[in-house]
Amino acid sequence: MRDRRSVALAPSPVVWPPDDTEESVLGTSLHQTTITNLRLGINEAAAIATPDGSPLLWQAGGQTMIRNFRRPDDSDYTTLPDIFVYRRSWDDARGSLSLAVDGPPVLIIEVLSDATAESNLDMERGKGYSYARAGVREYLILDPMYAELPTGGQSWRLVDGVYRPWPPDARGRWASAELPLLFGLEGARAVVETSDGRRLLREGEVERTLLGAERTLRDRERQLELQERREQAHLDEIARLRRRLEELERER
Questions:
Q1: In angstroms, what CA-CA distances link 141 with 68, 109, 154?
Q2: Range of the domain at 80
Q3: What pLDDT shows up at residue 207?
């Protein structure tokens, strides 16, 4: 007779990579700040690049469920990428997306955390395999703690269905071939730059920058007002001198 205890204690098969969950992708405050700054920068760059009244040229989402990725054993795999970008706008009120309906993102960025680092970095059986198989054209991993990746990041591009290394430039920026953007780290802070070298604002910089711009505008307005007053005073003096000259001519 089969021992029921052995059945009850038998370990469950390990599914690799495990599906992402809200708990597994949460990470630290730095992890979430990095995601926020990447998404903010990417979407602000899209708003700048898109003509008024036109749909966004691209749109980034973060930690939203994307279904229908596949594992090496061909089982269905659900992920919540830290950052994913489609080269079109999409309804960000949706609770999930799917490859079957939406197709693959052109870019996925994962920010390393203790819970997801192993599957993020596993290019043979982990997310790298699944993202390549789905047709995600660029895959970038950032490590703002520099715990697993001393350079702060590692990346790949899809070439003939296989991920090949996507090296950073001399400044440590990864220049996307799919979007006119560059990504990197300044210390532990994520950087998003446009292809013409403009760095997009990050969390904590927007209001400060607006206030600075307002102060600059007010200073400029005061300078213009003073200049106008000086010019008017100069014109008034010229007019006074002309009147005096006319009076002297009449007195002759």
A1: 21, 6, 5
A2: 12-202
A3: 58
